[in-house]
Design brief:
The structure is a homodimer. Chain A is about 35% helix and about 20% strand. Chain A has about 260 residues and is an alpha/beta fold. The first copy, chain A, folds into 2 domains: about 120 residues, HAD superfamily/HAD-like (Rossmann fold), CATH 3.40.50; about 100 residues, HAD superfamily/HAD-like (Rossmann fold). In chain A, helix 3 crosses helix 4. The longest helix of chain A has 13 residues. Chains A, B: This is HAD-IIA family hydrolase. Chains A, B: Keywords: Hydrolase.
Chain lengths: ~260, ~260
């Protein structure tokens, strides 16, 4: 059933890699699948909600052992930079996120505003492990002065070492409520990211297979847009979660590399 | 029309006081109304979403010149402490808020948990000008371990000096989204606070007059519960806002003291 697939979209955390107790990326699988895809002429795209420089994400994945090439990635930071350039041209952005997100966004011609006296066109929210009350208040002031709100994605939590931490979605919800504005969401589960991936891969939805360990945030929107979906059981979703869920992927495998025999 | 009113519920910020450019409370009005209420046998209750010690709030108001007596206040912190004691007895609480909120909550027999290894029954969110990412993550961990979420109130913003800052509501929204839990809201605009005020004043809803500069958060819920409502124009609501609003208070005055001639 998956022989017609021309492109593979790969989630990262829980699908390709996981983190050990020191927070380092360790491989879950993917080497065999990527090599098989190259042999059989399938295109590959890592689809990640990470909000830092693409190069840093690719280096992490290569460091974990994955044979990925330059350009085989679409991250939420990159997608945000591309979306804004396409819809609005070069913009002035105020970033609630880490330095590396600013570096990624600047690649697409946007100006990163630091001085609070300058009026940005957009407040862009990414993951910020150094979030402070002051940053939230500056974001609010910019929003009240006319800036629009962009969420690089809307994930609720991300795993980190032995716990889960607050991701981008909760901060976007806080700023929406505080400012009476509605955010534009770019990354998963937003359609924007999936449409951008299809355009980059030059394939139709039914020719693309989204592979992830997560049903609601990753596979459901892929299914909604007409992609095929594959669930891996190496991450957050267990077999009993799948049985309870109304979201039914086209295929379920223990490990991402088990997909080789279907492709 | 207001002669039958037996109790006055007074909002603080924008109604009784405002802040000067140094952040100090200065009086907007209220002395004449309070004195008139005493002469005519009306009970008085300051109804505030402040989440610090009641004594500190009363001292601020007296410092601004208002002749208020002990007990003539119901704050969101106090209401939270009373609500939890009534519904659940003495609880273990983890507080995302300032020290003064913990002091207020402890008055009602609750234990304030500081050590992150102890499991609280509730995460209580108040105003926290020293909010950090770490505090949000600790709150999330407690919620994921079974604690319930309480918002002392759900206000969006509060004025501070020459700007508005993030209030309690946005932080509650962030934690609700991150944890997949729904918060119990105590202060305005929640019914809980208004019902508690009526019980404290021993009056029926139609015998109580809620006085505030704010339509949606303060006067609408008062109206919904059957109270009479008076809007003052010394705060956030201007006459043109009132004209555009679907919320129609029973009476509109420039200054709170203008109510004297109606009571």
């Amino acid at each position: 059933m998956l022989k017609d697939i021309k492109a593979l979209l790969l989630d990262v955390q829980g699908t390709l890699t996981t983190r050990d107790e020191h927070g380092r990326n360790i491989l879950v699988g993917g080497v065999r699948l990527i090599e098989h895809a190259r042999r059989t002429g399938r295109r590959i795209l890592v689809l990640t909600n990470a909000t830092k420089r693409n190069e840093a994400i690719l280096n992490d994945l290569r460091g974990a052992g994955l044979p990925l090439e330059d350009g085989e990635i679409l991250s939420a930071g990159q997608a945000t930079g591309l979306y804004l350039r396409e819809k609005r041209g070069a913009c002035r952005l105020w970033i609630l996120g880490e330095r590396s997100l600013g570096e990624e966004l600047a690649k697409y011609g946007h100006e990163i505003v630091n001085d609070t006296s300058e009026k940005p066109h957009f407040v862009v929210v990414g993951l910020d492990r150094e979030l402070t009350f002051e940053k939230l208040n500056t974001a609010l002031a910019h929003l009240r002065s006319g800036a629009e709100l962009i969420g690089c994605h809307a994930s609720k939590r991300i795993p980190e070492k032995d716990r889960e931490i607050i991701s981008v979605g909760p901060i976007v919800k806080a700023l929406e409520y505080a400012s009476d504005k509605q955010a534009i969401i770019i990354g998963k589960p937003s359609r924007v990211m999936y449409e951008m991936a299809l355009a980059k891969l030059r394939v139709n939805p039914h020719e693309a297979l989204m592979i992830s360990d997560e049903l609601k945030n990753d596979l459901l929107p892929a299914k909604d847009i007409g992609m095929k979906t594959a669930l891996t059981l190496t991450g957050v979703t267990k077999r009993q979660d799948l049985e309870r869920s109304e979201i039914k992927p086209d295929i379920v495998v223990e490990n991402i590399d088990d997909l080789v025999s279907f492709l």
